[in-house]
Amino acid sequence: MKNFNNNNKTERVEVMALFGYEMTPCQPLSFKRPGDIETEVTELLRTQIRFAGQAAIHIFDVLIGHKQARLEFNSMDLSWYLTQAA
User: Fold this and answer.
1) What burial letters (b/e) apply to 13-28, b meaning 16+ CB within 10 Å?
2) Which pLDDT does position 81 carry in this prediction?
3) Strand, helix or coil for residue 52
4) Ramachandran area for residue 35 (φ above 0: left; ψ -120 to 50: alpha; else beta)
5) Which regions of the chain are under pLDDT 70?
């Protein structure tokens, strides 16, 4: 697996997510960076929503193995971004 987004820049990713599951309306299961293999999300730590104009940005703090990462979903254009990894 390649290094995560260590420079804290926003990177567009493809995400496999489960929608409408129990009390969590959306849960990312895995993501794929351009030119990389699919990376499994080990655990969902926290979710929050921020509003930017008419868009709702759904923020998911997740664990990838033992590393923490942040995925963001833009409700207007239905795009996913890897925005932070520790």
Assistant:
1) bebebeeeeeeeeebb
2) 96
3) strand
4) left
5) 1-8, 21, 85-86
